[in-house]
Amino acid sequence: MKIILKTKINLGFTLIELLVVIAIIGILSGVILASLNSSRAKSRDTIRMSDMKQIETALQLYYADNNKYPEESHNGCYDGWETSCDAAGNFIDVLRTGGYIPKVSLDPKNNSSYFYAYYNYPAGSNGCASAHAVLAIKNFESPNPSSGVNAKCSLRDWGTEFKYSVLLPQ
Protein backbone atom coordinates (compact mmCIF):
# COMPACT_ATOMS: atom_id res chain seq x y z
CA MET A 1 0.00 0.00 0.00
CA LYS A 2 1.28 3.29 -1.10
CA ILE A 3 0.75 6.38 1.09
CA ILE A 4 0.68 9.71 -0.66
CA LEU A 5 1.31 12.76 1.45
CA LYS A 6 -0.01 15.97 0.15
CA THR A 7 2.00 19.03 1.05
CA LYS A 8 0.99 22.54 0.36
CA ILE A 9 3.69 24.39 -1.60
CA ASN A 10 3.70 28.15 -1.00
CA LEU A 11 4.70 29.87 -4.23
CA GLY A 12 3.83 33.49 -3.35
CA PHE A 13 3.85 36.13 -0.66
CA THR A 14 1.02 37.00 1.62
CA LEU A 15 -0.69 40.36 1.39
CA ILE A 16 0.78 41.43 4.73
CA GLU A 17 4.34 40.65 3.58
CA LEU A 18 3.84 42.68 0.41
CA LEU A 19 2.41 45.65 2.34
CA VAL A 20 5.33 45.64 4.79
CA VAL A 21 7.89 45.65 1.96
CA ILE A 22 6.06 48.46 0.14
CA ALA A 23 5.92 50.53 3.35
CA ILE A 24 9.66 50.08 3.96
CA ILE A 25 10.48 51.10 0.39
CA GLY A 26 8.24 54.17 0.74
CA ILE A 27 9.93 55.29 3.95
CA LEU A 28 13.42 54.82 2.50
CA SER A 29 12.60 56.71 -0.68
CA GLY A 30 11.09 59.59 1.35
CA VAL A 31 14.27 59.90 3.43
CA ILE A 32 16.47 59.82 0.32
CA LEU A 33 14.39 62.45 -1.50
CA ALA A 34 14.45 64.77 1.52
CA SER A 35 18.23 64.63 1.77
CA LEU A 36 18.54 65.05 -2.00
CA ASN A 37 16.40 68.22 -1.92
CA SER A 38 18.57 69.78 0.80
CA SER A 39 21.67 68.92 -1.23
CA ARG A 40 20.16 70.64 -4.26
CA ALA A 41 19.40 73.77 -2.21
CA LYS A 42 22.98 73.88 -0.88
CA SER A 43 24.26 73.43 -4.43
CA ARG A 44 22.18 76.38 -5.67
CA ASP A 45 23.52 78.50 -2.77
CA THR A 46 27.09 77.58 -3.76
CA ILE A 47 26.31 78.65 -7.33
CA ARG A 48 24.96 81.97 -6.00
CA MET A 49 28.17 82.67 -4.09
CA SER A 50 30.32 81.73 -7.10
CA ASP A 51 28.24 84.00 -9.36
CA MET A 52 28.69 86.90 -6.91
CA LYS A 53 32.48 86.51 -6.95
CA GLN A 54 32.53 86.48 -10.77
CA ILE A 55 30.24 89.51 -11.09
CA GLU A 56 32.20 91.38 -8.40
CA THR A 57 35.47 90.72 -10.25
CA ALA A 58 33.91 91.89 -13.53
CA LEU A 59 32.67 95.08 -11.82
CA GLN A 60 36.17 95.74 -10.44
CA LEU A 61 37.66 95.27 -13.92
CA TYR A 62 35.07 97.66 -15.33
CA TYR A 63 35.98 100.19 -12.63
CA ALA A 64 39.71 99.83 -13.37
CA ASP A 65 39.09 100.68 -17.04
CA ASN A 66 36.44 103.40 -16.61
CA ASN A 67 37.19 104.88 -13.15
CA LYS A 68 33.54 104.33 -12.18
CA TYR A 69 31.05 101.50 -11.78
CA PRO A 70 28.34 101.07 -14.42
CA GLU A 71 25.03 102.81 -13.96
CA GLU A 72 22.05 100.55 -13.48
CA SER A 73 20.27 100.56 -16.80
CA HIS A 74 17.20 98.43 -16.15
CA ASN A 75 14.70 98.72 -13.35
CA GLY A 76 14.12 95.18 -12.11
CA CYS A 77 11.78 93.57 -9.63
CA TYR A 78 13.16 95.34 -6.54
CA ASP A 79 12.57 99.02 -5.84
CA GLY A 80 14.66 100.64 -8.58
CA TRP A 81 17.61 98.26 -8.37
CA GLU A 82 18.93 96.51 -11.44
CA THR A 83 18.06 92.89 -10.77
CA SER A 84 18.46 89.50 -12.36
CA CYS A 85 14.68 89.02 -12.26
CA ASP A 86 14.23 91.90 -14.72
CA ALA A 87 11.80 90.72 -17.40
CA ALA A 88 14.26 91.73 -20.15
CA GLY A 89 16.85 89.31 -18.72
CA ASN A 90 19.81 91.66 -19.17
CA PHE A 91 21.25 91.98 -15.65
CA ILE A 92 24.28 94.34 -15.71
CA ASP A 93 24.47 93.74 -19.45
CA VAL A 94 27.23 96.33 -19.84
CA LEU A 95 29.65 93.80 -18.28
CA ARG A 96 28.88 91.28 -21.03
CA THR A 97 28.85 93.75 -23.91
CA GLY A 98 32.08 95.33 -22.64
CA GLY A 99 33.85 91.97 -22.59
CA TYR A 100 34.34 91.87 -18.81
CA ILE A 101 32.43 88.63 -18.42
CA PRO A 102 31.18 86.20 -21.11
CA LYS A 103 27.72 85.95 -19.57
CA VAL A 104 26.32 87.69 -16.50
CA SER A 105 24.85 84.90 -14.43
CA LEU A 106 21.32 84.87 -13.10
CA ASP A 107 20.12 83.36 -9.84
CA PRO A 108 19.39 79.61 -10.18
CA LYS A 109 15.72 80.18 -9.27
CA ASN A 110 15.58 83.81 -10.48
CA ASN A 111 12.16 84.95 -9.35
CA SER A 112 10.81 87.68 -7.09
CA SER A 113 12.16 85.90 -3.98
CA TYR A 114 15.54 84.71 -5.31
CA PHE A 115 17.52 87.20 -7.39
CA TYR A 116 20.75 89.20 -7.67
CA ALA A 117 20.67 92.98 -7.32
CA TYR A 118 22.98 95.87 -8.22
CA TYR A 119 22.83 99.60 -7.51
CA ASN A 120 25.32 102.44 -8.05
CA TYR A 121 25.15 105.34 -5.56
CA PRO A 122 26.71 108.83 -5.86
CA ALA A 123 29.14 110.23 -3.27
CA GLY A 124 27.47 111.19 0.00
CA SER A 125 24.65 108.67 -0.31
CA ASN A 126 23.86 106.43 2.66
CA GLY A 127 26.53 108.14 4.76
CA CYS A 128 29.41 106.97 2.56
CA ALA A 129 31.77 109.80 1.57
CA SER A 130 32.67 108.41 -1.85
CA ALA A 131 30.58 107.01 -4.66
CA HIS A 132 29.87 103.32 -4.18
CA ALA A 133 28.01 100.37 -5.66
CA VAL A 134 26.26 97.47 -3.94
CA LEU A 135 26.00 93.94 -5.32
CA ALA A 136 23.62 91.64 -3.45
CA ILE A 137 21.81 88.30 -3.21
CA LYS A 138 18.20 88.58 -2.03
CA ASN A 139 17.82 85.10 -0.44
CA PHE A 140 19.53 81.78 0.15
CA GLU A 141 17.75 78.45 0.44
CA SER A 142 19.88 76.98 3.23
CA PRO A 143 20.77 78.68 6.50
CA ASN A 144 23.77 81.04 6.70
CA PRO A 145 25.92 80.19 3.66
CA SER A 146 27.02 83.83 3.47
CA SER A 147 28.74 83.94 6.87
CA GLY A 148 26.98 87.22 7.57
CA VAL A 149 28.65 89.28 4.83
CA ASN A 150 26.76 92.50 4.22
CA ALA A 151 27.47 95.99 2.92
CA LYS A 152 27.24 98.94 5.30
CA CYS A 153 27.59 102.69 5.23
CA SER A 154 27.08 104.84 8.30
CA LEU A 155 23.43 105.53 7.42
CA ARG A 156 22.46 102.23 5.79
CA ASP A 157 22.95 98.53 6.38
CA TRP A 158 22.00 96.42 3.36
CA GLY A 159 22.03 93.31 5.57
CA THR A 160 18.46 94.09 6.55
CA GLU A 161 17.34 93.89 2.90
CA PHE A 162 19.58 91.15 1.49
CA LYS A 163 21.05 87.89 2.78
CA TYR A 164 24.41 88.77 1.20
CA SER A 165 25.71 92.11 -0.06
CA VAL A 166 29.08 93.56 -1.06
CA LEU A 167 30.03 97.24 -0.96
CA LEU A 168 32.18 98.26 -3.91
CA PRO A 169 33.81 101.55 -2.94
CA GLN A 170 35.30 104.00 -5.45
Per-chain topology:
Elements: H1 15-66, E1 82-83, H2 93-97, E2 116-121, E3 132-137, E4 152-153, E5 156-157, E6 164-169
Description:
With 170 residues, this protein is an alpha+beta fold. 34% of the residues lie in helices and 14% in strands. It is built from two helices and six strands; from the N terminus they run αβαβββββ. It has helices at residues 15-66, 93-97, and strands spanning 82-83, 116-121, 132-137, 152-153, 156-157, 164-169. The strands form two sheets. It has a four-stranded antiparallel sheet, with helices on one face. The protein has a two-stranded antiparallel sheet with strand order 4-5. Strand 4 and strand 5 (156-157) form a beta hairpin. The N and C termini lie far apart (110 Å). The model has no long low-confidence stretch (mean pLDDT 87).
Question: What is the radius of gyration computed over CA atoms, rounded to a whole number of angstroms?
Answer: 28 Å
Number of helical stretches of at least 4 residues: 2
Query: What order do the SSEs take from the amino end to the carboxyl end, as H and E?
Result: HEHEEEEE
Please give the largest β-sheet.
Answer: 4 strands, antiparallel
Give the N-terminus to C-terminus distance in angstroms: 110 Å
Q: Largest beta sheet: what is the strand line-up?
A: 1-2-3-6
How much of the sequence lies in strands comes to: 5-15%
What is the chains' assembly state?
single chain
Helix content: 25-40%
What overall geometry do the principal axes of the alpha carbons give? rod-shaped
Unreliable segments of 5+ consecutive residues: none
Q: Return the average pLDDT rounded to an integer.
A: 87
- Quantity of strands, as a count: 6
Structural class: alpha+beta
